[in-house]
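hey so u asked for the seq, here:
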Amino acid sequence: MTLPDLRNPDQYALFLDFDGTLVAIADRPDDVRLDPETRVALADLNALLGGALAIVTGRDIAVVDRFLAPLHLSMAGVHGLMRRDAQGRTWTSAFDAGLPAAIERAVSPLLQRYPGELVERKYGAVALHYRDHPELEQASIDALENALCDLKETEIKRGKMVVEVKAAGGTKGAAVADFLKEEPFAGRRAVFAGDDVTDEDAFVFVNAHDGISIKVGPGATKAAYRTSGTAEFLEWLRRLPAQLAG
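ran it, structure tokens below
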């Protein structure tokens, strides 16, 4: 499907998922690589859009900052549990301080049985990655569903070869909505691109508010546009500064 032809940068606010959208998914989360050309495109786009560009990711903000450095962009992390606005202020959702430790205790039997499973600790969340052990998919889901039975105000998020328990509240769609209430995003048409099921609520929100939604890769989606995968999306993104400027 042809991707949108965007002109006039003053009209748009750009929201981008990270894993699977700006970087190809790797076997381990720390192994992803942001291409220099993509970093340059992001810097150019941020300038053209007057700062109306934000990363909306399931990762912690500090983790994505390391991949983007020296860029320092507006960002929502942990599926909306934390958010840094264009002025650099950080907003976080409140949750029981003992929640992450309680989640880890609940899944520890699985980790003891399968020590090769990769655990990712985030703000208000614990994720189990089973890309190296796809046979553990159902066991991982069962472990976190069992953990959820005894933990209040939590929810499960499933993604590509990962499942996590996070504090309830905060979604990517809500994060986009919050950005659009603030300068320099306010009054602009939202463009959101993402690759996973965790991006669908943002697609729904953007579609309902006359925005542009782009699904990166295969899978059922509510998005209006689609690319075959990360490589095709990045080709479009790298051309976008010239397109907007023209």
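The chain is about 35% helix and 20% strand. The chain has a mean pLDDT of 88.
lmk if thats what u needed
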